[in-house]
Structures are given as structure tokens and as C-alpha cells.
Amino acid sequence: MMNSVLIVEDEKHLAEGLRFNLEVEGYQVRIAGDGETALSLLTGNPDQFDAVILDVMLPGMNGFEVAADLRLAGQYVPILMLTARNRPEDVLKGFEAGADDYLPKPFELAILIARLHGLLRRREWLNRSRGAQSNNTENNKDAAGAFTFSGKTIDFNQLELKSFGRTIKLTLMEADLLKYLIKNKGQTVSRKSILENVWGLHEDTDTRAIDNFIVRLRRYIEEDPSNPRHLLTIRGIGYRFVPEEV
Ligand code: CA
Fold first, then answer.
1. Ligand 1 centre from 181 Cα, in Å?
2. Fewest CB atoms less than 10 Å from the CB: which of 111, 149, 222, 225?
3. Is the pLDDT confidence value at 140 over 50?
């Protein structure tokens, strides 16, 4: 099936150029020139788009506000955010707003397409596991897509975390990071290995983005996030996930 992408960008030449190139790659593409239009398109018909390329710099609402509003509205379409180079704080703000990945402008088309493929692959995997789940018994479902620890359950199929009586919706990136930490439970993982294995980044990216994610995950799973029992900081190295409280 043809993947459908929404480009949210007010610079017409850039948006049109992207559309042309993505159509050549076999995508169905629509352009929104501002955040308000994008929001009404995305919340009006939530399954219309498979991914969003969202520029930060927009007239009216900026890209951070659009992403945050989408997540608030329960819209979890994968978002690739276009940020300004030399503004690492934009990356943090983008992830905080609920973006799944980012790319600094100006970017190379091949890199944008690779990142988009990455997001869509994760989404497809998610949809497939949802389909498989409906054919499985309850036991298999648990074995396939959920992880329970210390009274909390992460459902990787539904991208939901049940913790302290709350149900929290996870972004793809949050779910991927949790999955990676769980896979390496009891072991220390470095920020660099998280960058490479979760983000797929080999370049020298600001590792504060990871710390920011860890802070968010702690708010989800820790009784006292300032005194973590599951998601421990290993000074000078990285992090360690411990399923049972220490
Ligand atoms: Ca723009």
C-alpha cells in the first residue's frame, strides 16, 4: 500500500521540492502551509497519514506546539521534525513535544528519506504486531508484546504504559528506548550505545536529548523520579534499567 505523508512547511519551494521527490519515491504527499491547517487535517481524519514531516519554523503555531497539540489530542502519527542547525535545544524541545525523530536543516534528501523509512518501518511493525495479536491467545499476546515489572506493564503493541493506576501513551521513540533498556536489563548502557541503537545515529549528537528522555521515563515509572529505583544513572557512563527495585 502507498504510504501517505503530510509535509508541514510554509516555504513553498522547499515543500514542493520535497513533495516532488517523495512522490518519485512512491509516497502520496499532501502539504500544509501552517500548523493550524496541519492540526485540522490530522485530527479530522487520524488514519489519513502514515507520517508527518513537521518544520519547526512556521507562521502562527510553531512545530513544537503542533506536535504537542497532536499528542494531547491522542494523535500518535510518527513525526519527523525539521530543526534549525546549531540549535541543539530545538532537538530537546522537539522530543519533549512528542516528535519521534528530527533532522537539522538544511538536510540531504537521501537522509530525509532514510529517516522517513525508519519511522514507517517501526509503524508497520507496530501494525503487524497488532494484527498478529488479535489472532493470538492472551498468553501469547503477553509473551509477544508486553513487559511487566514491579506492578507496571508496558504494552508495546498498543504503545501504552500502565503505572500507578495511570495509562500513559508512549511515543515510538519512548517505546523504543524502553525496549532497548529492557533488553539490556541489569546492564549499564552508554549514552553512545543508546544513540546508535535507538536513534540510529552515529554522528556526534548532543547526548542531552537522551537525558531528557530518561527524565520523562522516570516520571512514568518511578514513584519518586528524583530518587529512581528502576532507571539508574551510572555516573560518567550512562544508564541501567533494573526491573525489581533495589
Ligand atoms: Ca518553515
1. 35
2. 111
3. no
